[in-house]
Amino acid sequence: MDKQKERKKLTELIVDAIRSYRDTLCFGSRANGKTLDISSHIADHLLADGWIRPPCKVGQTVWFIRNKTEIIATCVEKIILKHGGLYIKLSHNSLYETTCRSIGKTVFLSREDAEKALETLNQPCTNLAPTDTPTDTPTDTPTEKALKGVE
Fold it and tell me: Where would I find the H helices in the chain?
């Protein structure tokens, strides 16, 4: 699809979302007991139509590492578009939203990836640089020398 057709399709989609939003307000409908704001409504339309492609889907099983010790399997409960980016809400902890940038760091799309990451987290660090030790000790101030009895 060329740029003009894409722009026209996107514009039509946004206009449809605004009309749908207006109709929702006119009939007093609520989503889960909350009034929808227009940006969320448009974001939902963009997600549903494939203009925004999240890295996972609602209902998909994902794995996350908790406390650097265990892997928890859970389900994506919701995908949220905010000013700060795309977030997912997991059913295991539905009070907390995590950014999609966490995928591959603490949230994983396969158990194997989560296991590899956990192994990496628990490996001792072997490539640490030796601590720098000063070659000469700092000299004492005159007051410190006097307290030690050194002239």
Answer: 3-26, 38-48, 111-122, 142-148
What are the backbone angles phi and psi of residue 136, rounded to the nearest 5°? -130, 145
Q: Is the dihedral of CA 131, 136, 140, 146 positive or negative?
A: positive
Whole-model pTM?
0.53
Alpha carbon of residue 50 to chain centroid: 20
Domain coordinates in residue numbering, the chain:
1-53, 54-122
Whole-angstrom Cα distance, residue 34 to residue 130? 57
Pick one of 2.30.30.30, 3.30.300.330, 1.10.10.10, 2.60.120.330 as the CATH number of 54-122. Answer: 2.30.30.30
| Cβ contact 108:98 at 8 Å | no
119-123-127-129 Cα dihedral, nearest 10 degrees: 130
Give CA–CA dist 36/115, Å, rounded.
Answer: 39
In angstroms, the CA 14 to CA 5 distance is 14
Q: What is the pLDDT of residues 80-112, one digit of tens each?
A: 877 777 888 898 876 778 888 889 988 999 999
